[in-house]
Amino acid sequence: MCFYWLSFYSIFAKKNIVARTYKKTEDTVDVVLIGAGIMSATLGVLLKELEPGITVEIFERLDVAAAESSDAWNNAGTGHSAFCELNYTPQKADGTVETSKAISIAESFEVSKQFWSYLVRSKLVDSPENFIRSIPHISFVWGENNVNFLRERYNQMQKSSLFKGMLYSEDKAQLAEWMPLVMKDRDPAEKVAATRMDLGTDVNFGSLTRMMFQQLQDKTDVSMNFNHEVRKLKQRDGFWEVKVKDIETGVRRVVKAKFVFIGAGGGSLPLLEKSGIPEGKGFGGFPVSGQWLKCTNPEIIEQHGAKVYGKAAVGSPPMSVPHLDTRMIDGKKALLFGPYAGFSTRFLKNGSLMDLPLSIKANNIIPMISAGLDNIPLTKYLINQVRQSPNDRLDALREYLPSAKLEDWELETAGQRVQVIKKDEEHGGVLEFGTEVVTAADGSIAALLGASPGASTAVSIMITLISRCFPDRVNTEEWQRKLKQMVPSYGCNLNQDPELTETIRTQTSHALKLQVN
Ligand SMILES: Cc1cc2nc3c(=O)[nH]c(=O)nc-3n(C[C@H](O)[C@H](O)[C@H](O)COP(=O)(O)OP(=O)(O)OC[C@H]3O[C@@H](n4cnc5c(N)ncnc54)[C@H](O)[C@@H]3O)c2cc1C
Fold first, then answer.
1. Ligand 1 atom with least separation from CA of 270
2. 253: which strand partners?
3. How far does the centroid of ligand 1 lie from the alpha carbon of residue 170, in Å?
4. Per-residue confidence at 517, pLDDT binned at 50, 70, 90?
5. pLDDT tens for each residue of 337-395
6. What SS3 class is residue 363?
7. Torsion of the alpha carbons at 346, 348, 351 and 352, rounded to the nearest 10
8. What confidence score (pLDDT) does residue 408 get?
9. Which of 45, 57, 75 to mutate to test the pocket of ligand 1 (most atoms within 8 A of CB)?
10. Beta-carbon contacts of residue 493 (< 8 Å; ≥ 6 apart)
């Protein structure tokens, strides 16, 4: 509650801020991208491919691209396809398992892989092994109820060709082959089960993002500005005036843009609020921080070769599903466990403690209070996570690696997520764990809020955004042809077309040098 009081303080404090002068530049650009994460990179490349003549200006407050959530160590690097993430397949009251969300996420990842294949084929990014690798995706559970759930999940998933190739086993010898360290020193009486998908991937989204920006920068009419923070946004005479401060020199300027994308990750909500568009009213943000345990023992790292996802603890947010992940970062094999959730009022890892209080406005205070009251168990869970001792963390790790020793692991801070709070007629406000694309009615500005399923679905999200913001252009023959070239399954439903799924998967696996079925 003290954060809400802080917000009142901030409202008064803001009234005393002296008006700053921004230097107007004569230039008008077609597109301004705010933030140099994977979302802006994807949108920038898509738009430049669709309309090569457009002028683009990118502003990033840090001195390098992809240093917030998109950086390799700030996220888990899972190519989310719903192969192993149990939170995408909730169990219904009658015991059956719902797979619709899993299907939609699996389809979205196929779209991403097609676009990345296009980038590789067109030599717009370097070798695919610099950003994507095959790695088995395993779901692992223990206890009678969880085993029943996993078996039912597997049976339901067999109905979709998107999960073709998934294996299921309760046989301990088989499981020991799939994940020797996880099965070592485990109670022999324990009932366990796992599914395995060899088509799973580990993605270095940071590396991919930087490669996309590199090729964007090499194009004409694209200007990339690091150490530039966007402070204000105002629509005037059919343009957006974007007020930017150069953090190094202190120089302020105004850039006029026809279209603005607020791809500032956790920083998107405050900028959306500043834009004043009616569609942005009523949104709030709930920051969730995270930590990993990173293995420092090369012998242990070597013995594991999968992403092993378990079931989330009761009361925990869906993105806190624990997992033991083999990663490939900058050509080096690594192993991480987590995430351990936490609470911080920052909206960005490099943000300010005042981010949350300053985001509370008259139009979102009711949704935020309502969502807060409805999510007291989540708050308690996060507080408990923050209070965890190293031995508590070790206990959680030992559920996956029974023989783990604390000296082989070190703590790393992960990226910051800002979950979306939305107005809701019944509850006043609800906390959501997905992604929300907010666009102005005239299509001149769009913002991306939320962080799940995240970077893996960046391409689908940006194609949806393009169709909302550029409705006339998107239906032209030219754009339709180009979209089909970049994403051959564009306009088709893969789940209902096993043959197309097979063809697409073979093509993308070949282009991205991934495991073929
Ligand atoms: C712990 C964790 C685990 C995750 N695991 C996965 C996973 O396994 N798989 C997956 O697909 N996704 C995962 N995600 C989600 C994924 O990382 C994000 O969805 C994705 O990186 C978001 O990209 P973005 O471009 O929107 O934001 P970011 O990468 O955060 O980029 C936003 C950029 O905007 C800049 N910025 C902010 N404010 C301003 C301003 N005012 N002016 C200029 N620049 C500004 C920031 O400095 C930053 O560089 C995870 C996230 C977290 C935190």
1. 41
2. 23, 244
3. 37
4. low
5. 998 887 788 999 999 999 898 898 888 888 888 877 787 777 777 777 777 888 989 99
6. coil
7. -10
8. 97
9. 75
10. 107
Residue 127 CA to ligand 1 center (angstroms) comes to 23
Question: 75 C-alpha vs ligand 1 centroid, how far in Å?
Answer: 8
- Cα of 376 vs centre of ligand 1, distance in Å, is 26
CA angle 181, 183, 188 (to 5 degrees): 150
Which residue's CA is the closest to the ligand 1 atom numbered 2? 75
290 CA: nearest ligand 1 atom: 1
Are 152 and 136 within 8 A, CB to CB? Answer: no
Strands 307-309 and 137-142 come out as parallel
Alpha-carbon distance 445 to 344, whole Å?
29
Query: pLDDT digits over 77-93, tens only?
Result: 999 999 999 999 999 88
Least confident of 9-18, 72-81, 254-263: 9-18
- Contacting residues for 451 by C-beta, under 8 A, at least 6 apart: 69, 265, 266, 319, 417, 418, 419, 435
pLDDT at 317: 67
Residue with tokens 């899972």: 78
Residues 35, 458: contact at Cβ < 8 Å?
A: no
Helix/strand number for the chain, H first, E second: 17, 20
Taken in order 455, 115, 326, 163, the sign of the CA dihedral is positive
SS3 333: strand
pLDDT tens per residue, range 90-112: 998 888 899 999 999 999 999 99
pLDDT at residue number 452:
74
Tell me how far CA of residue 376 lies from CA of 16, 316, 371, 388, in angstroms: 35, 11, 9, 19
Question: What gap in Å lies between CA 22 and CA 252, rounded to an integer?
Answer: 5
CA of 416, closest atom in ligand 1: 53
Query: Would you say the C-alpha torsion 487, 488, 493, 495 has a positive or negative sign?
Result: negative
Residue nearest to atom 41 of ligand 1 (CA): 230
Alpha carbon of 439 to those of 257, 259, 312, 314, 449: distances in Å? Answer: 16, 11, 33, 35, 11
| Signed CA dihedral, 384, 397, 170, 198: sign only | positive
pLDDT (tens digit, 9 = 90+) per residue, 105-158? 999 999 999 999 999 999 999 899 999 999 999 999 999 999 999 999 999 999
Hey, what amino acid is at 426?
A: E
Is 177 within 8 Å of 211 (Cβ atoms)? Answer: no
Please give the Cα distance from 262 to 448 (Å, whole number): 7
**b or e along 217-241 (b: 16 or more beta carbons within 10 Å of the residue's beta carbon)?**
eeeeebebbbebbbbbbebeeebbb
In 3D space, the residue among 69, 63, 60, 370 whose CA is nearest the CA of residue 230 turns out to be 60
